[in-house]
Design goal:
Radius of gyration: 11 Å
Number of helices: 3
CATH superfamily: HPr-like
Largest sheet: 4 strands, antiparallel
Shape: globular
Structural class: alpha+beta
Strand order of the largest sheet: 1-4-2-3
Oligomer: single chain
Distance between the termini: 29 Å
Amino acid sequence: MVERKVTVVNPTGLHLRPAGLLCQTSMKFDSKVMIFYKEKEINAKSVLNVMASGIRCGDEITVHCDGPDENEAVEAVCNLIETGLKE
């Protein structure tokens, strides 16, 4: 199990397109990928869960990965978020 805190920097937060990109990236890994935001535990492989989370620009989240490729997963997901989700 590994986790890392990261701040969402893209101006529009996790609306449909960035949420979809985050989910696509998460699904490339066998590890379970979760996002912790406030009191919520969000499955990063579900577009609907990510969009419903209400995560906005400037919010700090914790990316939690658990599984055989957890280090690669946390690195890829956090890098995507830190670079603005290609927006």
